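pls design
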């Protein structure tokens, strides 16, 4: 005969087994909830710190556009400056020039003078231009570029061949780009380069004035020093004569005794 046991009758026996399982799942759910909360808070804190120190992070879809604009602006500036240098310095064939020139350090060791002729400024600038590929470090490249700008600025002031800014922006890749912002960035780069060129010319003129003032001061000081030397020589000779007469008189007195 089969004995039937009802659930209420088994509940007291099953309760000790059910309670640990329930506590286990409750604890597991609580742990998952705490980990989720920690993750959310950590993400919020990280985003706040990045925004504080780096500003808002640009959208990934905008990065290629920003790179294109920066490249266009950089190309516009380089094209304008290169055209300005080439127009005034008229660089020679690089291979031929390298065979005729000495080292870069010796070429840069030449000190340009304000009284140089246009041909002398242009010749020295062409020499530096030919050796520019040898400037492989940032420090040497900075020295070379500064010398090129100085020579071109002097030629710009002295020569009767004004530079046409239209020569500095001839890249069809950017002038006729399908994106209007890229075209504007290219033109803006040329404008910025033109402004720096005018600042370079102004600085070169100021340097010429300073050199002239230094030469004038040196000449004036040389006159003062020469006058002081002449005065010292003139005052020394009579003293020497008086000393000689005094010695002669003393010797004569000794002989007379």
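designed seq:
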């Amino acid at each position: 005969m089969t004995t039937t046991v009802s659930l209420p009758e088994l509940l007291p026996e099953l309760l000790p087994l059910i309670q640990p399982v329930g506590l286990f799942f409750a604890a597991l759910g609580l742990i998952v909830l705490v980990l989720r909360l920690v993750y959310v808070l950590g993400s919020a804190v990280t985003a706040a710190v990045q925004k504080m120190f780096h500003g808002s992070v640009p959208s990934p879809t905008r990065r290629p556009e920003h790179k294109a604009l920066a490249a266009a602006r950089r190309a516009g500036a380089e094209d304008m400056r290169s055209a300005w240098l080439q127009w005034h310095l008229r660089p020679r064939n690089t291979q031929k020039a390298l065979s005729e020139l000495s080292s870069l350090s010796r070429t840069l060791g030449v000190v340009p003078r304000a009284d140089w002729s246009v041909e002398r400024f242009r010749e020295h600038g062409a020499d530096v231009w030919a050796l520019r590929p040898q400037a492989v470090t940032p420090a040497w490249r900075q020295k070379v570029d500064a010398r090129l700008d100085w020579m071109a600025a002097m030629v710009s002031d002295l020569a009767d061949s004004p530079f046409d800014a239209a020569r500095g922006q001839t890249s069809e890749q950017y002038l006729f780009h399908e994106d209007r912002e890229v075209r504007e960035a290219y033109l803006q780069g040329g404008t910025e380069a033109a402004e720096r060129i005018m600042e370079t010319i102004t600085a070169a003129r100021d340097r010429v004035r300073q050199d002239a003032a230094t030469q004038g001061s040196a000449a004036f000081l040389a006159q003062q020093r020469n006058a002081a030397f002449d005065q010292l020589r003139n005052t020394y000779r009579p003293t020497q004569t008086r000393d000689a007469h005094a010695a002669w008189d003393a010797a004569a007195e000794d002989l007379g005794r």
